[in-house]
Amino acid sequence: KCVKCQEDIKNLRGTTTYSYVLKEVEGGVEVLDVKAFELIQFSPFNEKKGAAQMETRQSLIFQEYRKTGLRPVSAQYFNHGSLRYEIPTELIHTPIQMIKTSSENPLVVQIDEILKHLVAHNEETVHEDAPMKFVELFQLLRKMKHEDLANIWKKYIDRPAYRRWLLDSIT
């Protein structure tokens, strides 16, 4: 790894592992099972303990052979050397929840606590747990019903500091 490459990607670190189960068959090898695990850490501002982590797991299991293959999507590709990009046609799924949220308190109570913490601890300098609290706030707001979200907005509309955190997390 060159020094220049390390400087360019110092905010992003990750590792991926793969596990394969193979079976010898006549004429080659058959892939029966593939498991992938990826852990990525991103620290956008080099803050002390200000990193977000994303964990991804994927499992592929062989099910059956098909006599007819799938037709590739006909699209115009641009020559970028040996790379070829194919965009899947199925729907993009929503991301997996990254932070475990408490089920003891209702969402509104959890959001109130996080907002109070963010406003109280981030006035002059950014608190060390602000990035994780912000991600947690974002994920809790995604779980809410529209009516509950409207009630939270009405509650904090006259408080600029709270309103700023809410707007930043829902836009």
- Helix fraction, binned, reads 25-40%
State the secondary-structure class. alpha+beta
Tally of DSSP β-strands: 3
Tell me the count of domains: 2
Mean pLDDT: 78
Percent of residues in beta strands?
15-25%
Spatial arrangement of strands, main beta sheet: 1-2-3
Total helix count?
5
Describe the sheet with the most strands.
Answer: 3 strands, antiparallel
What's the helix and strand layout?
Elements: H1 3-8, E1 12-25, E2 28-42, E3 52-61, H2 107-121, H3 130-143, H4 146-156, H5 160-170
Antiparallel strand pairs: 1-2, 2-3
Helix pairs in contact: 2-3, 2-5
How does this structure look, described?
There is one protein chain. This protein has two domains: 59 residues, no CATH class; 63 residues, no CATH class. The chain contains five helices and three strands. α2 runs antiparallel to α3. The protein starts with a helix and ends with a helix. The mean pLDDT is 78.
Compact description:
The chain is built from five helices and three strands; from the N terminus they run H-E-E-E-H-H-H-H. With 171 residues, it is α+β, with helices and mostly antiparallel strands.
Structure keywords:
Vitellogenin; 5 helices; elongated; three-stranded antiparallel β-sheet; storage protein; alpha+beta; single chain; nutrient reservoir activity; 3 strands; 171 residues; Lipovitellin_superhlx_dom
